[in-house]
User: What shape does this take?
Amino acid sequence: TLTLSGGSTIGQSGAIHADALNVTTANGAITLANTGNTFGTATLATGGADNATLYDASTLTIASANIGGTLTLSGANGISQTGAIHTAVLNEATTQGAIVLTNPANTIGTANLTTGGSDDASLTDASALIVSGATVGGNLTLSSGGALTQTGAIHAQALTASSTGGTITLTNSANSFNTASLTTTGANDASLTDASALTIASANIGGNLTLMGSSTIGQSGAIHAASLNATTTNGAITLANTGNTFATATLSTGGSDNATLYDASALTIAAANIGGTLTLSGGSTIGQSGAIHA
Assistant: This one.
């Protein structure tokens, strides 16, 4: 183990090779970004609002991190953890390998994630999580103990987003993911925007589910929500899974695009503005509380 501590900044001009790295500063940033670095595990701590930057040419495991400012982790292989990460901002990138940071004690204000190829990324935050950007070659899994929001676009093959104590609001108009799975608890809502075709793999939403897309919206698994609001600007809505349950629904398509909806329970249409054909079916009654245009 290599242990480095100082009263000010810690940097490097040459590569570091160690089985384990432990770095602490009382008043200053940690900047260890040499592309030749190799260490199995790392423990990092800064005081105040000081940042920490770490690069590992091999697989990197974070044993623990307590960073007052921004934590930047990058590497040529996978990045994982055995202990909690606490930081105001997390920037993480791998060129070849998955990101797996799923410790339930993590507290991260905002996060930016990047993987190459078809590599996945998984991130858990015990508090509210803001995604400032994500470009993930494979599947992106986000878990939050509070609200889950974004300030930058998310690009991934598939998105799994869950919150145990808040809403999900991922409505950046540049988002693109093929499939999405969403979960909230209590009466918390979820809102999702996709600039491309969107397929809902599953949704269990305690409150209202809002889906917005620039292309088609479909599903491969059941949707359960207190209410559903689905809008496309250029594409059909096809939500015909026989396991669907939502009390009320609002639907809108542009042009001559159709909408198809199935509800296994009683269905009330709050509003519908459909450019093409509207098809409604269900396992119980179908009524309306607002006008239908189709």
The longest strand covers residues 60-75. The mean pLDDT is 97.
